[in-house]
Amino acid sequence: MAHSQNSSRPDLRVAVVGLGAIGIRVVEALDRGIDGLVLTAVSVQHPEKHRSRLAGLTRPPEILPIGALVEIADIVIECAPSTLVRSIVAPFVSAGKTAIVLSAGALLDHEDLIELARHHGGQIVVPTGALIGLDAVTAAAVGTIHAVRMITRKPPGGLAGAPYIVANNIDIAGITQPLKIFDGSAREAARGFPANVNVAVALSLAGIGPDRTTIEIWADPAVTRNMHRIEVESDSARFSMSIENIPSENPKTGLITALSVIACLRKLRASLRVGT
Q1: Residues near 61 by Cβ (< 8 Å), separated by ≥ 6?
Q2: pLDDT tens-digit profile of 193-212?
Q3: Which residues contact 248 (CB under 8 A, 6 or more apart)?
């Protein structure tokens, strides 16, 4: 197995599932080189669509079905539809390996995966993604957090097709003023907006859980970026955070999400780690 330049430890083998706006960026970053890691395989629903782009990489990875990845990788990165989370994560954590999960909302429907990881010595990693300050929330949670509220504003197009909007017959295409379309728990938000609120679920998992974390979602024709504001009340600090994310090629996904995964990967073998 290949060795990294600054360490006698063998490189960790990485597989990526899903080559959408995030997955392809992560794959390209791994190919350019992240110390201590090597890209060994990808899994995609339509391999022929991605073959030429993958062939352009310095070391093209194998294209394999999801079930074959655990044999040839130590870490899997899930950049896929949330319906696939279980099939991606379960084999890796059962083998005592690591799964990096972007579809954090799916963890609420498959909480036994966390128990599976605990039982087999595996680990599920949820990167910070499109948020800031999850380390502050994690620190505050060591003490007592009283309340966490998140207010999300998105361009209406970024919310189109969400199950909650479809089920409630909300016409967001024609709105001219900001419209509050949801106010409830992170758990309810994850069901109603599975492609939009992984950030809220990550926030809830870092803090006081999906039932006590509250979220407002606004469709706002005046904004071009996905905007999140988080307010935390705890016994150690009161703090608020705001972030405006520039959408990637997929309007539901912020560009910083891909960068967050890359930063997370760099930390795995870094000589210096900054942040909790």
Answers
A1: 15, 16, 27, 39, 40, 41, 42, 54
A2: 988 888 899 999 999 999 99
A3: 21, 22, 25, 254, 255, 257, 258
The H or E element spanning position 127 is none
Domain 134-247 is of which CATH architecture? 2-Layer Sandwich (3.30)
Instruction: Examine the residue annotation and report whether 228 is marked as an active-site residue of this protein.
Output: yes
| 231-250 residue pLDDT tens | 999 999 999 999 888 766 77
Q: Positive or negative, the Cα torsion across 188, 193, 199, 205?
A: positive
What is the value of pTM for the model shown?
0.88
Element (H, E) at 264: helix 255-268
Quick: pLDDT tens for 36-76.
999 999 999 999 999 999 999 999 999 999 999 999 999 99
Distances 156 to 115, 128, 197, 217, 223 between C-alpha atoms, Å? 37, 24, 14, 11, 9
DSSP structural state of residue 61: P
Asked if residue 124 lies in contact with residue 113, where contact means CB atoms within 8 angstroms, the answer is: yes
As given in the structure block, the two tokens for residue 22 are 């995030």
CATH topology of domain 12-130+256-268: Rossmann fold (3.40.50)
At 237 the pLDDT is 93
